[in-house]
Amino acid sequence: MVSTTYPKELLLKAVSASEKQVLEALPNIKANVEGTDDEGITVEVTGDRPDLLSVFGAARALKGYLGKETGSPACDFNASGIKVFVEPEAEAIRPVLVSAVIRNADLDDTKIQHLFQVQEKLDLTNGRRRKKGSIGLYDLDQLKGPFYLKNASMDTKFHPLKADREMTVKQILSEHPTGKDYAHLVTGKHYPMLVDSKNRVLSLVDIINAADCAVTEDTKNVFIDLTGTDLHSCNATLNVLCQDFADQGAVVETVEIHHKTKKLVTPDTKPEKYVLNVDRVNKLLGTSLPPKEVVQLLRRQRLDVTVGRETLECFTPRYRSDFLHEIDLVEEVALAHGYNQFQVKEPSVFTVGSKSDRTYLVQKARDQLASFGFLELMTHVFFSHAKAAKASAEKDVVKIKNPVSEEYTSLRSLLMPSLLEVLSKNTHQPYPQNVFEVGEVVVKDPKTTTKTRTDVNACLLSAHADANLSQVASLLDEFNRRMNFAYTLKAYTHGRFISGRAAEVVQGKIPVGFVGELHPMVLENYGLQVPVSAFEIRLIKGEH
Amino acid sequence: MKEIEHRILEALSKHKTSVDGQKLAQDAKVSYDALMSVLSALEDQGFAYVKRSSSKRLELTDEGKTYAEKGTPERRLVDALSKKPVAFKEAFKSAGLSVQEEKIALVWAKKNGWISMEKGLMAKVSDVESETEKQLKQALEGKLKDAGALLARKLAEEVEEKTVSTSISSNGKKALTQESVLASQLTPEMLKTGSWKNQEFRSYDVDTLVSPVMAGKKHAYQEFLTKIRDKLIALGFQEAHGPLVELEFWNMDALFMAQDHPAREIHDVFLVEDPTKGEILEKQVIEQVQKAHEEGLAGSKGWRYTWDPEIALRLCLRSQTTAVSSRTLAKGIKPPLKMFSIGRVFRPDEIDWSHFIEFNQCEGIVVDENMSFRELLGYLKRFAVEVFHAEDVKFAPSYFPFTEPSVELYAKIPKRGWAEVGGAGMFRPEMLSALDVHVPVLAWGLGIDRLAMLSLGITDVRELFSSNIGFLREAKTA
What we know:
The complex is a heterodimer of chains A (544) and B (478).
Chain A (H helix, E strand, L loop, with lengths): L1 E6 H8 L3 H7 L5 E6 L3 E6 L9 H11 L12 E9 L1 H4 L4 E8 L5 H16 L8 E7 L7 E6 L4 E2 L8 E2 H7 L1 H6 L8 E5 L5 E4 L3 E2 L12 E7 L2 H17 L3 E8 L4 E4 L5 E6 H8 L5 H10 L3 E4 L3 E6 L9 H12 L19 H15 L3 E2 L5 E2 L1 H4 L10 E2 L9 E2 L4 H9 L8 E12 L7 E12 L5 H15 L4 E4 L5 E11 L2 E9 L1 H6 L6 E9 L4
Parallel strand pairs in A: 4-7, 4-14, 19-23
Antiparallel strand pairs in A: 1-3, 2-3, 5-13, 5-14, 6-13, 7-10, 8-9, 10-11, 11-12, 14-15, 16-18, 17-18, 20-22, 23-24, 24-28, 25-26, 26-27, 27-28
Helix pairs in contact in A: 1-3, 10-11
Chain B lengths: L2 H11 L5 E2 H8 L3 H13 L3 E13 L1 H9 L2 H8 L5 E2 H8 L3 H13 L3 E4 L2 E4 L6 H10 L7 H5 L3 E13 L1 H10 L2 E2 L4 H6 L6 E2 L18 H15 L3 E2 L5 E3 H4 L20 E3 L8 H12 L14 H5 L1 E3 L4 H9 L6 E10 L11 E10 L5 H16 L3 E6 L5 E11 L3 E11 L1 H6 L6 E7 H9 L12 H6 L4
Parallel strand pairs in B: 7-8, 9-13
Antiparallel strand pairs in B: 1-6, 2-6, 3-5, 4-5, 10-12, 13-14, 14-18, 15-16, 16-17, 17-18
């Protein structure tokens, strides 16, 4: 989801509808209204619809949805005669360049601000933070074609945006804020730049544009380029921008892109064709819409449709880059129909429901421990391994590469440290404090496909003046009896327990847990001033 | 005389000299509050002498305690500095200060004349012990007298301590003797000998009958999850589980999420540092998933890029329970099938009242030849009504890389209003085909923490996993 703000006056005028109508319709075209004030309507646009990032794209979709304008908008663009030559050395770094020319752009302050907002959001979404492609906008009247994409030397000088002087490429990359942010996009010794026939620099591509050919309110004719690594993404973005200008009444013209071995004419506006089977639409939606209605619905989504004998031929406009499969057209039908206009169908297929064996065991264990008079806790699987050391817990735990907080750096392999943390925060509460948790822990295991195992453990802690090994061992025995776990106890020495006051729990020959009186050192680490005895055993061994 | 009065008076009679209220409450097994009100009554009747006094004492606040232990932020800052000027950011970093502490450290280090600042750089000038530090030291040694500096910084506060000391009067003793003809408890002895026939019993005061019980109790949130589980089972769903550490393959690639999808970036999914890579045994599935991404399957264009198997092998923390669905479907299934899974998922996020980096999700799928979008809406509505007693539902279009059409469910919950319940859709043909499933699959994933908050009347998501035993003992059950 990407948030964007539509200038309100512009939107209402473009759609020629009331504010109420527009606000009601927006969620149905995938623009979820976040808020509105005198100036603007802020929406969250779903990730598949970058065309809705601009107010003109939203207006286009709304006019279709409200039935004011249907079918694809016109996009027959004439040739501008302008050429761009991509030199092979530059192509090796940025293989894709697409471009267009806009004539008679009618820009004012609101439109310019909005255009820059759209540019930024498209770079972020479609362009994946300029990795796949980034947009350049220039005042064509300050420049003279043809244009060249070629590699800059580090001491090439020009005056970049957001700076008060000329800078060399080297200075831009190391000193200019935008330069520093995006320098990583081009790796290697060379940085491609776009220049005009008089060798004036338009931009250090993907990084920053020159100040003297920037688009302003006075700009009449705009030169657009996208450079990047992904032709689909660049062409989609270019089409979004061009269609926005076309919808405002400007004239869009194509540009010839000359590579050493190929020639392109962009923007490529040829619609993509999908064949849609109406029966299939109805089966998937659970409807019985006649073909005629399906056609109308698709046209309201701004698609062109021709009716064949048994199928529909659908043409998707190129400013929409989210079509991959026939199913995407089925959603278009559903959108135009209106999700809330469907009569919902009650579940129709009979199946037998069942609880997993695992849940059965977990619930049974929780029932037993609660019946012993213990309070159930629910703590996080996330844990801090620094904290786990307080209970001499296992050191070889699953650690996170990108933690967001020092409190949550790894996954717990035992429940006990989490429960001791809880006791340490409750020393002011009355004792006895008898608590338990049945929960997931994660341990390393080279034999599984995830190289780890998600087990379920049960842990019980008894904190009061008379807490001792015999008491919890008796509870463990009763617990195991009720759970039908055969087990034996084996003498056990571990730093976390008082010597001679702990035992290992063994099932068959496999150790599955422990029971004991916590060592005063551990209690001190947690600031506890009452004895604590505890058991923890594995209930379920994970798979995968 | 009331039972409780008798109990307290009797406990009091065991003390030859006057006794402290706290001790007496313990002896008589009553709460301190109850003792106070009963003592007044006993005093009025002339059965007990009560002496009340109060005293004021200085005590460190939590902040004060931290500083006494770790040193004040300004001390930690100046200790990390030298005469050589360094950038603010660097100084704060080497002092290990939190953002909040940075400001405190700066203000007080300057006030103490410890540092000089110029052009974003700072250096150490002096580090003489401040008044605050002297007083913190005294407080630690228990010799705090003048705490002006600490009080001014709210590092210490005055605590008023009320004490009560009490003793029994001769009238009280007399009353106790007279009262002793009344029994306070029916005993086995009375039953054996039949003496109960001539015995009168002391009456209880119904206002002071109840005291807190620390019985066993299940966690309200676990019980809420049990309730959801039971509803889904009643609706014909079978339960499944998956691992918390998951391969990106099952968490994303098998869900037709392109490898450059924004939700796969480092700020949206937790990666595992060690071990880093898992393995995929289903070779056929890998091939098909690769094909789905690169050139498309089942009539799709695909995402058209070079799919990297190494990325798919990376281990991450499960970021969506849909991973359980992809694993289930890949195992080979026989329709009709309804499956659900409730489990923890992990996503990097800011931690605040409404977000935590670990939360519960509830996933469900329905696999059958005749499934349709209209039936998906039916399931969603049924679910909202059965589980959350929704008064009404509405649907909004949505987008997920693995479903088409996609929908967002909103439910009107009694007394709470409209709430976003979760996302749903029909799994995309590219995803299903790669997993060798050739019938429609309805799917939904609900973030249940928020719904549990609504249901349990909790306003901070962190309280769902509360570590406050007092709160848990009192919390209402689901």
